Amino acid sequence: MAASRAKTDDRCRIVIIGGGFGGAYCAQSLASKLRRSNAEVSLIDCNNYFLC
Ligand SMILES: Cc1cc2nc3c(=O)[nH]c(=O)nc-3n(C[C@H](O)[C@H](O)[C@H](O)COP(=O)(O)OP(=O)(O)OC[C@H]3O[C@@H](n4cnc5c(N)ncnc54)[C@H](O)[C@@H]3O)c2cc1C
After folding, report:
1. 12, 13, 14, 36: which is deepest, by most CB within 10 A?
2. Candidates 15, 43, 45, 52: which one to mutate for ligand 1, based on the most atoms within 8 Å of Cβ?
3. How far is CA 12 from the centre of its chain?
C-alpha cells in the first residue's frame, strides 16, 4: 500500500540531516520560501531535541 501511494505522490521532498544551527536555519528558510509550493521539508537529527 505504501509503495503505491508513494508512486502517485508527486510532492518534492527535501530531507535535511542534522538539526544544528545550519540545519535549523536551512529548514526555516526553505519552509518559508516553499510555503506555496507542493514541497515537504523534513529535518532529522540523531538527538530528540532541536535548537528552534
Ligand atoms: C561550547 C560552544 C560554544 C559556542 N558558542 C558560539 C557562539 O557564541 N557564537 C557562535 O557563532 N558560535 C558558537 N559556537 C560554534 C557553533 O555552535 C557552531 O559553529 C555551529 O553549531 C555549527 O553549526 P552546524 O549546523 O554546522 O553544526 P551543529 O550545530 O553542530 O549541528 C550538527 C547537528 O547534526 C546532528 N547530527 C550529527 N550527526 C548526525 C547523524 N549521523 N544523523 C543525524 N543527525 C546528526 C547533531 O546532533 C547536531 O544537531 C560554539 C560552539 C561550542 C561547542
Report:
1. 14
2. 45
3. 10
